[in-house]
Specification:
heterodimer, A: 703 residues, alpha+beta, Ubiquitin-like (UB roll), Jelly Rolls, 3 domains, five-stranded antiparallel beta sheet, 37 strands, B: 306 residues, 2 domains, 10 helices, 2 strands
Chain lengths: 703, 306
């Protein structure tokens, strides 16, 4: 044997098997598991993976005492191992469990570890189970020595010792590039491939890893990962005119255009639901109809010239159609956060597209080459429309946008990750590109949600305008991508465009005042039950005085009558004292209904009243999200594309989301007006319940 | 509908109107040579006023049919219905001089008596019952949904029993040989039955399933069924207490849920009964009212023409 050869290697060359856990051929040996111990005739057994052969050395690799020592080591490792671990369950090849089975170790004699080490499920592609980790360091050597990524390291001591990503961050928040080396190095189920289950790709050509690596967007993606996820991406061919995906449909995949052109558009009527009728005459019947913005301008109607969608482009409000070209990606929000499709995509020419599952998209988004391409596309094509889609920035000149073009930064955040924290110094302004951002303020009594921002929303202007630290914490609610404009560019913009400064200052003032109102109200209402029922969050409640209500349902009939037979209230709900809080839009301060709207068409006015914009596509996610069941889907006749005859239209039905509009054409909501018993009232909860809240004992409630 | 201080204006106005009508009627009745008659000028005035009030009261039904019509708040219509309807009866009595007249008018008057009394009864019910219902039925639901909720309760109960029995049977199937042996030897110790064994678990599981099939499911599925054991709160409580003794403490929450399901069913039955009482009087009041209006109109035409 050449000098320096380890006993392990020498045995391997001679066909003598020595079991091991912490060692594999492509990594430097460290000798931490000691499973490869052999008898070299000395006082203690030596770890064969690190002990070098010596001239005249006699090595016994499988005597009974050596086997017994190995079995004891395996038994000790098994005592802390969740058997069967994820790997054993998936593929039956957990190396530790195989060794245990070979040594006939079924139930370890030693007690299990009592302090849990936890799991990290944050990554979309790799599941981390710290419980199954045997501290062999194979993943660390794979990450650092083989891939040169230096993300993985050891953390903690004693029973809490384990592997850590960066400074012990959740894997998804770390600088991990999801190359998969750690996963393939791991001998147990501590790092396993997360298969995306319950999702389906369309029919297409399954590409093998070599073919994928040949494509520019997969350059530098780990072949190991692609090997493990072979069916998670398919190449699909669409004929001109063929529909790729439809707005409102729930999906779980993203598309990347390789060849051809596609058009993205909204087929839902661009109009909001309007109720009209009886305000003009005593007996004229109320009816709901669809009214476009120009025909029925509502207070604080949005002036957005573009409709945000889940693609690299926004759609012009006046003619919601745009073109997608090779290199464009769409459906990222649907894929990562399972939101409904925000628009319909139709092939304009014959197209070739890649359709991928979220694990592939996640790995692409972490890939530097792909990120660079995405940013290039965004800067070149989408920055203009994105900035101009925000009314405040509508007046920016082209030269300034060009100035920003190379200076803005696209940042990506995972669900729960903090984008900026209250109290931090302000150095940037952010525009939301993908996903939803929660803006909240930490108060002595807890967190107070101030707003949810969707694509086109922005934050960070208050601190930059006033030179104070951040006034609120902004957190990614789902997979968020923001455009960061540095503080100095923001200042330059304010200096060059006084009207932008003016508008931003006015909005900042409104936001500050609104936040203060929130805070005052939150402090004034300390009653637990009141808060627990979400009544504090409501601005306007339909309450029924149960001591007056004869359960005649006139309120429900009136509501249905006022809205084409679709009632927007149900005489059922929580009770607070003698009042029934009916199921009808509460105009919540924490409007969960807005989270997830794929086209950002549900928002609040400054009065906090919920308004559904014209471009609602009727996907129903807001109705699902509303915790009080207060949003309905209202059907309307519409002309739809005939799937059998492209280019032709057929009569069909489209739905639009509606919530209680307080019958704002009238002095009083119909439900209240029609109650013969003076039992129904629309009230502001803190004011209405002030008397009850002042009582020392909590009121009787039911859920 | 609560007849409270907010009705004061209507009460005062009705009382004033009645006082004036009575003040005018007494001298008129005393001075009229042939007694008060419906055909006299004053009698006709009373008749017209009374009929108009009745008509207004009757229009409430139409108002309710079109709840979005902006023709005054339904609450005002209801108050008008109540007080003017109440006032119409003495006015009609003044109109006829407290005589019920011929067959048509007698029939009308008796009908009016029924309508008036049923109306007062209804007002009283609507005054008291909602408060009673609110206090008695914390788990109240929409009346039309009661059948559906009953079905859901039955399903929920089945799931809970399944879950509880599976937990008990699971313990049996997971028991080691030693536990099985110990269980087999469990019996009576010092006069007390040892219920901690696996045998006991199997028995309780069987009993619980029998209880579901024989008692609980039929009770939950049938409307009413007050006569059944579970229909009586106290008896149901006893029954569940017996199971509570037999079941291990960690499964008591399931029993609590089952007991709550029965309580909810009792409340649904009660709601059903109360709802019928609260709205049942309308079955008399409404048809008689429309018949009365028709007869009143016929009477007016006949009296004026002939």
């Amino acid at each position: 044997m050449p000098a320096g050869t380890t006993i392990f290697d020498a045995a391997r060359v001679n066909g003598i098997p020595i079991p091991t856990l912490c060692h594999q051929q492509n990594e430097n040996p460290v000798g931490v598991c000691r499973v490869c111990v052999v008898d070299v005739g000395q006082r203690v057994y030596a770890a064969s993976c690190i002990r070098q052969c010596e001239p005249g050395m006699t090595v016994k690799t499988s005597t009974d005492p050596v086997q017994a020592a190995r079995n004891t080591l395996v038994e000790l490792l098994m005592s802390d191992h969740p058997s069967p671990c994820a790997r054993q369950q998936q593929s039956g090849d957990c190396e530790l469990e195989r060794l245990a089975a070979a040594g006939e170790i079924t139930e370890p004699r030693f007690p299990h570890r009592t302090t849990p080490r936890g799991k990290d499920d944050s990554s979309a592609v790799i599941a981390v189970d710290h419980e199954a980790c045997i501290l062999c360091d194979r993943c660390i050597r794979g990450c650092d020595d083989i891939r040169d990524n230096w993300v993985l390291a050891r953390r903690g001591k004693g029973y809490q010792a384990g592997i850590a990503f960066d400074n012990n961050l959740p894997m998804s928040e770390s600088s991990c590039v999801s190359c998969g080396e750690c996963m393939v190095s791991c001998p147990t189920g501590a790092l396993t491939n997360k298969r995306v289950v319950g999702t389906q790709l369309g029919e297409g050509d399954v590409l093998n890893p070599a073919e994928l690596l040949h494509l520019p967007i997969f350059q530098n993606v780990s072949g190991t990962f692609l090997e493990l996820n072979q069916k998670a991406v398919v190449k699909r061919h669409f004929k001109a005119g063929e529909i790729v995906c439809r707005e409102g449909e729930f999906g779980s995949t993203a598309f990347y255009i390789l060849e051809g052109q596609a058009e993205v558009f909204l087929s839902s009527p661009i109009a909001h639901v309007k109720t009209e009728g009886s305000s003009k005459g005593f007996f004229s019947k109320l009816q709901s109809l669809l009214a476009p913005r120009e025909g029925d301008r509502r207070s604080e109607e949005s002036d957005r010239p573009f409709i945000p969608i889940d693609a690299s482009v926004d759609l012009p409000y006046d003619n919601p159609i745009a073109e997608l070209n090779p290199g464009d990606m769409f459906g990222e929000m649907t894929c990562m956060s399972y939101y409904p499709r925000s628009a319909t995509v139709r092939a304009r020419t014959d197209c070739v597209m890649l359709e991928m599952l979220r694990n592939v998209l996640d790995i692409l988004q972490r890939n530097k080459t792909f990120r660079a391409q995405l940013e290039r596309n965004y800067r070149a094509r989408a920055l203009d429309s994105h900035l101009r889609s925000v009314p405040v920035f509508a007046s920016l000149t082209q030269d300034f946008i060009d100035h920003l073009r190379d200076r803005v930064e696209l940042l990506r955040f995972n669900p729960g990750q903090v984008i900026c924290r209250q109290g931090d110094p302000a150095d940037s302004f952010y525009l939301v590109r993908i996903g939803f951002v929660k803006v909240s303020e930490q108060r002595p009594g807890g967190e107070l949600v101030l707003a949810y921002l969707a694509r086109g929303g922005y934050f960070g202007e208050i601190a930059l305008l006033s030179g104070i630290p951040r006034s609120a914490t902004c957190t990614a609610l789902d997979h968020v991508e923001v455009v960061r404009i540095a503080g100095e560019d923001f200042q330059l913009m304010l200096d060059r465009f006084p009207d932008v400064r003016q508008k931003l200052e006015a909005i900042a003032r409104e936001r500050i005042e609104e936040n203060q109102r929130h805070t005052v109200q939150a402090q004034n209402v300390p009653v637990d039950q009141f808060l627990a029922q979400g009544l504090m969050e409501a601005q306007s409640l339909l309450v029924l005085d149960l001591e007056k209500c004869t359960r005649c349902d006139q309120c429900v009939h009136a509501c249905a009558d006022a809205h084409d037979g679709v009632s927007r209230l149900v005489r059922e709900g929580l009770r607070f004292d003698k009042y029934l809080v009916a199921t009808s839009c509460r105009q919540c301060r924490d409007p969960l209904c807005m989270v997830g709207c794929p086209v950002g068409s549900i928002r609040r006015r400054n009065t906090l009243e919920v308004i559904i914009e014209d471009w609602c596509i009727g996907c129903g996610l807001c109705a699902t999200n509303c915790p009080y069941g207060n949003i309905n889907l209202h059907p309307f006749p519409a002309e739809l594309d005939d799937p059998a005859h492209p280019g032709h239209k057929i009569a069909g039905v489209r739905v639009k989301a509606t919530s209680c509009d307080l019958c704002h054409d009238h002095a009083e909501p119909s439900c209240v007006y029609a109650c013969p018993h003076d039992a129904a009232h629309r009230v502001n909860p803190p004011e209405f319940f002030a008397g009850l809240l002042a009582q020392p004992a909590p009121s009787k409630t039911r859920s | 509908m609560l007849i409270d201080h907010t009705h004061r204006k209507w009460l005062v106005a009705s009382a004033v109107a009645l006082t004036i009508a009575t003040a005018v009627y007494i001298p008129y009745a005393l001075r009229a040579p042939q007694g008060p008659r419906g055909g006299s000028a004053l009698g006709l005035t009373y008749g017209i006023a009374g009929f108009l009030f009745m008509l207004f009261a009757g229009l409430l039904g139409l108002r309710k049919k079109f709840p979005v019509w902006r023709v005054g708040r339904a609450q005002s219509w209801m108050r008008g219905h109540l007080w003017l309807g109440l006032l119409s009866f003495p006015l009609i009595l003044f109109h006829g001089g407290f005589h019920f007249g011929g067959p048509l008018t007698r029939l009308s008057m008796w009908m009016f008596v029924f309508v008036w009394i049923s109306g007062i009864l209804g007002a009283a019910l609507q005054h008291f019952m909602p408060r009673f219902q609110t206090a008695q039925l914390p788990m109240e639901t929409i009346y039309e949904q009661i059948d559906r909720v009953r079905g859901q309760l039955a399903e929920e109960a089945s799931q809970l029993v399944d879950e509880t029995c599976s937990a008990l049977e699971g313990e049996v199937s997971h028991a080691s040989e030693r536990q099985r042996a110990m269980s087999a030897s469990a019996g009576t110790q010092g006069g007390l039955t040892v219920a901690s064994g696996l045998q006991a678990n199997e028995q309780v599981s069987t009993q619980l399933r029998q209880f579901l099939d024989a008692e609980m499911r039929p009770y939950l599925q049938r409307p009413g069924s007050h006569a059944m054991t579970l229909g009586q709160g106290a008896q149901a409580q006893k029954l569940f207490q017996q199971f509570r003794v037999l079941l291990p403490p960690e499964l008591h929450s399931n029993l609590d849920d089952l007991e709550n399901i029965c309580e909810e069913k009792r409340q649904l039955d009660k709601q059903s009964r109360l709802h019928k009482i609260l709205h049942g009087w309308l079955l008399v009041h409404i048809p008689l009212s429309y018949a009365l209006l028709l007869l009143g109109a016929v009477h007016a035409v006949v009296a004026l023409k002939f």
